[in-house]
Design the sequence.
């Protein structure tokens, strides 16, 4: 609460100076409207939980929620901002789902190219919230090692899978079927929340992965199917990273097509000429290792 009040007070300084920086580990800045916008982002996340839970009581096929919000949230640590993130939107939503709606077991998938260290830290000791992150090995903020598996009563409820640069559609297909699905099935969630970062796209300037619009379509479709299998279709996506506007907009739109059961337009939107061979051997080794660590 002290951080929230401090941010609110900092808005006067932001108004006077036009722009202020909030942390030293990344260019997390604020303008005079940042407090309001951050509250709106977190509030929209809570409203989506309300809406999706209400819909799941009325139909066996509830709509997927998607929080199209900025600032993103998965780097924000419990005590403050980090990495473009001000409040941990998905973390707040997870705890809200538990405390307000009685959805005790929350499964979080984070496929942003960067490790969601804030979400990781928020629930590292919590056995009722499973955090699963795939991210580019060696990328910002340098956290998310395979050996980070949770602690105390939460040991085993954190799964971090750093993937080699150049990983793309083929790798993520393996990850979904061999890591995400068995982890979720064993955990038996009441709701699935997704930190949907689109900065692993091959066109994104801040990383070195080879996701495509088609990759994101399949992830959205597969996660939606998994939610129907395990938790009555209760599933919400939260926008995280994505810094190339064209690939970001195309990938988000194709994710919506997946939610609606429409066909992907990735064959029109993706350019196979920019792709190169994935590091399949190294990716396979990483997948096998994480399966061994977590007995999947």
Sequence:
């Amino acid at each position: 609460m002290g951080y929230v009040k401090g941010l609110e007070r900092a808005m006067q300084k932001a108004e006077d100076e036009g722009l202020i920086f909030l942390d030293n580990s990344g260019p997390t800045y604020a303008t005079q409207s940042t407090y309001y916008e951050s509250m709106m982002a977190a509030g929209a996340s809570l409203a989506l939980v309300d809406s999706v839970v209400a819909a799941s009581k009325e139909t066996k096929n509830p709509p997927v929620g998607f929080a199209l919000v900025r600032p993103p949230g998965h780097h924000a640590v419990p005590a403050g901002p980090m990495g473009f993130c001000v409040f941990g939107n998905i973390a707040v939503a997870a705890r809200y789902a538990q405390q307000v709606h009685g959805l005790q077991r929350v499964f979080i998938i984070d496929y942003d190219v960067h490790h969601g260290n804030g979400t990781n830290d928020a629930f590292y000791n919590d056995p009722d919230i499973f955090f699963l992150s795939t991210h580019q090995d060696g990328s910002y903020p340098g956290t998310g090692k395979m050996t980070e598996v949770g602690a105390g009563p939460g040991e085993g409820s954190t799964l971090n899978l750093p993937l080699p640069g150049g990983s793309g559609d083929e790798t993520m297909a393996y990850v979904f079927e061999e890591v995400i699905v068995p982890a979720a099935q064993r955990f038996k969630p009441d709701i699935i929340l997704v930190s949907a970062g689109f900065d692993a796209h091959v066109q994104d300037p801040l990383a070195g992965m080879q996701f495509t619009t088609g990759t994101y379509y399949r992830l959205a479709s597969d996660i939606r199917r998994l939610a129907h299998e395990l938790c009555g279709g209760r599933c919400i996506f939260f926008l995280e990273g994505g810094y190339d506007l064209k690939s970001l907009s195309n990938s988000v739109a194709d994710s919506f097509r997946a939610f609606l059961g429409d066909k992907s337009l990735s064959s029109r939107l993706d350019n196979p000429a920019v792709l190169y061979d994935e590091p399949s051997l190294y990716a396979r080794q990483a997948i096998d290792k994480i399966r061994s660590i977590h007995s999947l």
User: Anything to note?
Assistant: The chain has a mean pLDDT of 95. The CA atoms of residues 213 and 268 lie 10 Å apart. The longest helix spans residues 34-58. The chain has one domain: 2-293.
